[in-house]
Design a protein that fits this description.
By secondary structure, the chain is an alpha+beta fold. It is 35% helix and 24% strand. Among the domains are: 81 residues, Alpha-Beta Complex (Photosynthetic Reaction Center, Chain H, domain 2); 92 residues, MgtE N-terminal fold (Alpha Horseshoe).
Length: 272
């Protein structure tokens, strides 16, 4: 077992043993339970960053990274649309632990090698203080003092995104696991997130599931989430809610002009 933090910043040597670059990121496909590392992003000693396929490098147990050819002769890897940059898009981000029904922060990432073919797979997320200390370089110091760091990992297949898109994290191509949770569990997750990320999670649900979830959160959070929706979407969700709950939300922001439009649409649909 190795950690992404142990590879980020690692020197990259050419076949002659000369340091020619450093590792700045690892790339994996976003739509796999335990994705194989497909490429490394390298920062040469001179020039711009270069993305090279995993097949062009060898990573030893001690973390040493060696190129199979000179860097100038190493082929370039073109990331497909669903590629995920672990250092840029995952480390330090929030994720949802679907099995634990909680929001956690990514302090480090576990990767494991497959000796038969030399591949490495992303297998877990370290959410422990140990992971953070490891990244800060304190792990070796504590080890020298006889203190062991105990990681606390979540299997990669058990996580879901908090946000998606080019600026955030997209760990799965679908949100089926999240949608299978009970509305009260989804409400618990949303309650742990800020407004923006809570809205992102709610947007992944259909109207009925979103309505059931909203009925499980506090009135203030209900208003906040509904207020940031498109009027059509808000009206559709209100129509799925129990009349008393929908009426309570409408009363809460009836003074706002956009809210009046939503209220009229919802009332026309039968909410009283």
């Amino acid at each position: 077992m190795q950690y992404v933090s142990e590879l980020i910043g690692a020197p990259v040597r050419d076949p002659a043993g000369h340091v020619v670059a450093r590792v700045v990121d690892l790339l994996v496909p976003a739509d796999a339970d335990y994705p194989a590392v497909e490429a490394l992003s390298l920062k040469p000693r001179k020039g711009d960053a270069q993305i090279v396929p995993w097949s062009a490098v060898q990573v030893r147990d001690n973390g040493m990274v060696t190129l199979a050819t000179l860097l100038a002769d190493t082929p370039t890897f073109v990331p497909p649309p669903n590629e995920l940059s672990l250092a840029r898009q995952v480390l330090d981000h929030q994720i949802i632990d679907v099995n634990g029904v909680r929001v956690v922060r990514v302090n480090d990432l576990q990767i494991a090698s497959t000796p038969s073919d030399g591949s490495y797979h992303l297998v877990g997320v370290d959410i422990s203080t140990a992971g953070l200390l490891r990244r800060l370089g304190a792990g070796r110091v504590l080890g020298a003092l006889g203190m062991r760091l105990t990681p606390k990992a979540i299997a990669w297949e058990a996580i879901e995104p908090v946000e998606s898109g080019s600026a955030g994290v997209k760990l799965k191509m679908s949100h089926e696991d999240l949608a299978k949770l009970h509305p009260s569990d989804i409400a618990e997750i949303i309650s742990q997130l800020d407004q923006h990320h809570g809205h992102e999670v709610l947007e992944t649900l259909d109207d009925e599931a979103a309505a059931d979830t909203l009925q499980e959160v506090s009135p203030d959070l209900q208003l906040s989430l509904i207020r940031n929706m498109e009027p059509e979407r808000a009206a559709d969700i209100l129509e799925e809610m129990e009349p008393d709950d929908a009426a309570g939300i409408l009363d809460g922001f009836a003074a706002a002009l956009p809210a009046r439009a939503v209220a009229r649409r919802a009332l026309d649909g039968g909410v009283r």
